[in-house]
Amino acid sequence: MFVRGLKRKCFDGEEDIEGTLAGIKAIPSYNLQRQSLLDMSLVKLQLCHMLVEPNLCRSVLIANTVRQIQEEMTQDGTWQMINTQSTGQASLDRLVSTDILCRSSKDQAEGKHVPAYGTFNKDFESDQAQDSSETMSTASSVQAPRNLQSNVWEMESPQENKGNFQKSLDQIFETLENKSPNSVEDLFSEVDNSYYDLDTMLTGMMSNTKMGHCDSLETFSSPTNTASNSNCKSDLNDLDHIVEILVES
Amino acid sequence: FLGAGGGNDIQWCFSQVKGAVDDDVAEADIISTVEFNHSGELLATGDKGGRVVIFQQEQENKTQSHSRGEYNVYSTFQSHEPEFDYLKSLEIEEKINKIRWLPQKNAAQFLLSTNDKTIKLWKISERDKRPEGYNLKEEDGRYRDPTTVTTLRVPVFRPMDLMVEASPRRIFANAHTYHINSISINSDYETYLSADDLRINLWHLEITDRSFNIVDIKPANMEELTEVITAAEFHPNSCSTFVYSSSKGTIRLCDMRASALCDRHSKLFEEPEDPSNRSFFSEIISSISDVKFSHSGRYMMTRDYLSVKIWDLNMENRPVETYQVHEYLRSKLCSLYENDCIFDKFECCWNGSDRQVEFLSLIVMTGSYNNFFRMFDRNTKRDVTLEASRENNKPRTVLKPRKVCASGKRKKDEISVDSLDFNKKILHTAWHPKENIIAVATTNNLYIFQDKMN
């Protein structure tokens, strides 16, 4: 996302904030940019290839980026998750449980849980156990109040993982839901339209499958007519769209 | 020679282009690796469809001194097939990640090719004679009625049309849980290493049912995983030394004599981060996509997303030289992250050696976007950007240097950053070991360029 300013750098321009006025104006934008980068990264981790094992290097780099952002947000005090953690174990690693972040949509459809990292957990287990029988790692069921019709997330779970997955799922949704209807609008109102002119810059790029990411970002903004809807309704709309994207239906 | 002393830069000319002409690229035709053999006579490519195509250089025509021999198809074979991993319910791609040639020991040629999981040793041999004149069989193979045999003769070898056969001699399987990114043949020519995201294994070329694990960086808890292996290579002269690079921009040099499991490096090469350039993408762009030793083994070169760095093996704390490949992309990292281009793995290579001069690693070549590739001369500190395009395909046409306009007013022949085609990436390049001939792979075409001979 590019924010209009003196310097047309992508938001690595955090170092460029000079002067209080510019600072005041830039900081909220920076937060939004950072938030959108976080969302983009989470979506990337979710949208893994359907049939082929995802690229571990790419997943690790994206996960590291997510952690970086979360660490910074924690230091800033903008990371709200800390408040909602019920137990005292608020380790940063748990904030993004990479286990469940990478799932093939095919497996989601089948209700199986074969995450990229999880596969390596299985390897680890099979390394240990030295047998070839597969132990499916699973995710916990989602809280009903979330009002998600995706049964995809509902699975049996080993007890010790339940808490983690629960929290991780909550965290993902919390993060994506972090935008109130207003902030969603703000997020995109601040966007320099020439960001979408990146289409021309990245000629032909947007038209291939990678467009999926761009699509999902646009989906975030499109449904909410913030002026007319109540908060609750637009929250649900947002959630539906978010779930759609995550489940890759 | 190559700018050393003589001061003449190489002038590159188009020589040949291989592959389909149309813009609609079949996925299977995407070139995934390019490698000359040790003499340079053979040039191998691997593609996403699991095929290997080998080109052979024509013998130089003594009368035609204006150009070196052309490369023509010598052998094509299916190296790897797609597989299905039932345990994980995932496909194993047949894409050839790397090809490495063995030095030639007899009439046949040998190469190693690998996909994500399995390495194969292929023997490529020529057959240009066949036995004729059997007593019991006709020429087409049908058995003769023994009662019609009235005389005996000795079968003789008669010439036939050249046939090139590729046969798999060894299959090195089931040793990698993660995706193989590198193979490297040791200078002892008996062993080789294979590296995946988390482990490196040592093999003996004759033994397929065993390999030694020499590096393992897998954490006990996968949730703690933050760094993976991205490339590995044996030292060209020291058969107990190898290096591997990581996604965090570090290179570790290991000595196999120190311990069986080389988890502790002998040397760690890492450049401290430049705080003024820090961003959320710093780590991603520092990830090393390729590492190559210089011919002497005194230096090594690494490629990260924006630059090529030359390291002196005796200095761990910073590279001795850094070359910017496409610095104008630094301000576009966010978009390149979004469209995944930031994860593109560019390779790099050294020049070959001239006949008259001993091996000197003086020129670096690497690819970029828009079908551009770059060369850096370490001596003169000059660099050039060239383009692999069918528009320049008249033989002996000297390639015109290209220039990207990063900002401000675009000059006449320059191309602006916003016009670059990020779908057209050159990830794989190779330099003939002995002559100034280079092979440059675009998505599905292989370009061969030569220096202008006078």
UniProtKB/TrEMBL annotation, chain A:
Residues 126-146 are annotated as: Disordered. It comes from the Eukaryota. Residues 127-146 have a biased composition (Polar residues). One of its GO terms (cellular component) is nucleus. Residues 30-77 form the SERTA domain. This is CDCA4 protein. It comes from Sylvietta virens. The gene is Cdca4.
TrEMBL record, chain B:
The keyword Repeat applies. The keyword Repeat applies. Keywords: Repeat, WD repeat. GO terms for cellular component: protein phosphatase type 2A complex. InterPro entries: PP2A_PR55, PP2A_PR55_CS, WD40/YVTN_repeat-like_dom_sf, WD40_repeat_dom_sf, WD40_rpt. One of its GO terms (molecular function) is protein phosphatase regulator activity. Coiled coil: none annotated. It comes from the Eukaryota. Signal peptide: none annotated. PROSITE patterns: PR55_1, PR55_2. PANTHER family: PROTEIN PHOSPHATASE PP2A REGULATORY SUBUNIT B. Belongs to the phosphatase 2A regulatory subunit B family. This is Serine/threonine-protein phosphatase 2A 55 kDa regulatory subunit B. The gene is Ppp2r2a.
